[in-house]
Amino acid sequence: MKKIITLCLVALMTVGIASAQQKKTDKKTVTTEFLTDIDCPHCAKKIDNTIPYEKGVKEVKVDVPTKTVTITYDPSKTDDATLIKALAKLKVKAEVKR
Prior knowledge:
- The protein is an alpha+beta fold and 98 residues long.
- It has helices at residues 2-25, 41-50, 80-89, and strands at 30-36, 57-63, 68-73, 94-96.
- The chain has a domain at 30-96: 2-Layer Sandwich (Alpha-Beta Plaits).
- 45% of the residues lie in helices and 23% in strands.
- It has a four-stranded antiparallel beta sheet.
């Protein structure tokens, strides 16, 4: 009897863990590329050190030669307008690249 109960508990735990891992991978992200007015590595460093701490931001890539900032974020927590405001706080003008 103990073996049957133990096997049932192990099976339930396995199913619970598998479904929890599936929920984590179901999260959606959006990647937006912004055209900015950055022109130096110092500006890029400011963005790299600040924007990742904005709510919902997953990844930030800054390319100084093309003056673009690529941000991957969770759309349920932030949006393009909020990220543009966050960049404006750093005195960086930005607009969504079309």
